[in-house]
Write a structure and sequence with these properties.
The protein is α/β, with parallel strands linked by helices. It contains eleven helices and nine strands. Strand 7, helix 5 and strand 8 form a beta-alpha-beta unit. Helix 1 crosses helix 6 and helix 3 runs parallel beside helix 4.
Length: 318
């Protein structure tokens, strides 16, 4: 099979090249085009406009504007890239002979906070902010055009997968785990130990395994959440980091009411710890991967959440 990966030189794309290059012929589509072992050639977005891309069997659309946690990016940038670019790539897919399209959306397209115990694909999407809103707009475009295409043809062999991963991590990743690791490595105590939150994560190894399954098997089209089997608390993350560092964790279990009062004052004085940041740091965000595992015919993901985090943390010290 020939596979086209957009955003192939990013963190996720680079990992996919490593996991897929032995079984598939890989092509890239990106804003940069350095040579990469395992990639025949990386094409430009101008090549997409000119329809100058090679014939492929599947397209993995990774390219997008990542979530800016500092809220400094203009809203329109998200829609230009996450929505507009996706429309162009999906339109190309519909015109092409490719049989599979995998779009990387986000759990943030479904919900900024999880109502109930866990997030499932049945939720009515209610994204908050331009990142999630631009992702759900891209999802809707894909679903509307797929439905229209299926109504106009007796049998449509194409398969379309919308993946909603929670936070992806692994060697080479530069995200929130790196920031927390920096705090722990400097020996700064974690003051929010009294909040026992649970959050889902996505190991890049589990994600690569899932992509391999979607390419190799006849999986029904649809929306699929992606995450590891186990959710982890921030306290557990810190303990894992200290385990890798060979240190004892410094977790302070300060009174919740006191911390909430400090956050209220921080909101009034525009300090780093405010109500919104406290909520983000301590809330639960558990994502169900049951639908995806049923589709793949597996009982559990190959990598346990804690093992995936250990591998990521070890890479920070290299």
């Amino acid at each position: 099979m020939n596979i086209l990966i957009t955003g192939i030189h990013g963190f996720v794309g680079s990992n996919f090249v490593v996991s897929l290059r032995r079984e598939y012929t890989l092509y890239g589509l990106d804003i940069v085009a350095p040579e990469k072992e395992g990639v025949v050639r990386t094409y430009s977005w101008e090549d997409l406009e000119r329809r100058g891309l090679p014939k492929v069997d599947a397209i993995i659309h990774l390219a997008g504007k990542a979530h800016d946690t500092t809220n400094q990016s203009a809203a329109q940038v998200y829609f230009d890239i996450n929505t507009g670019l996706t429309k162009k790539v999906f339109d190309y897919f519909l015109e092409s002979d490719a049989r599979k399209f995998i779009f990387f959306s986000s759990v943030k397209a479904a919900a900024d906070s999880v109502p109930g115990e866990e997030l499932t694909e049945d939720i009515v999407p209610a994204p908050v902010g331009p990142y999630g809103e631009s992702k759900i707009a891209a999802e809707n475009y894909i679903l509307e055009n797929e439905e229209l295409r299926m109504r106009n043809e007796e049998f449509w062999e194409k398969r379309v997968y919308i993946l909603r991963p929670c936070m992806i991590h692994g060697p080479g990743n530069k995200g929130n785990l790196n920031l927390l690791y920096g705090v722990v490595r400097r020996g700064i105590p974690w003051p929010l130990g009294a909040f026992e939150n649970r959050r889902s994560f996505t190991s890049i190894d589990n994600l690569s395994y899932v992509i391999g399954g979607l390419l190799a098997k006849d999986i029904p089209s649809g929306i699929y959440n992606m995450g590891d089997d186990e959710a982890l608390s921030t306290n557990e993350l810190i303990a894992l980091m200290c385990e890798v560092l060979g240190r004892k964790p410094h977790i302070w279990r300060l009174n919740k009411g006191l911390m909430e009062a400090c956050a209220a004052v921080g909101t009034w004085l525009h300090l780093p710890l405010n109500k919104e940041r406290l909520r983000k740091l301590t809330e639960n965000y558990v994502v169900s991967n049951a639908k995806l595992k049923r589709a793949l015919g597996i009982e559990r993901m190959p990598v346990r959440a804690a093992d995936g985090v250990r591998k990521t943390i070890r890479s920070f010290g290299k």
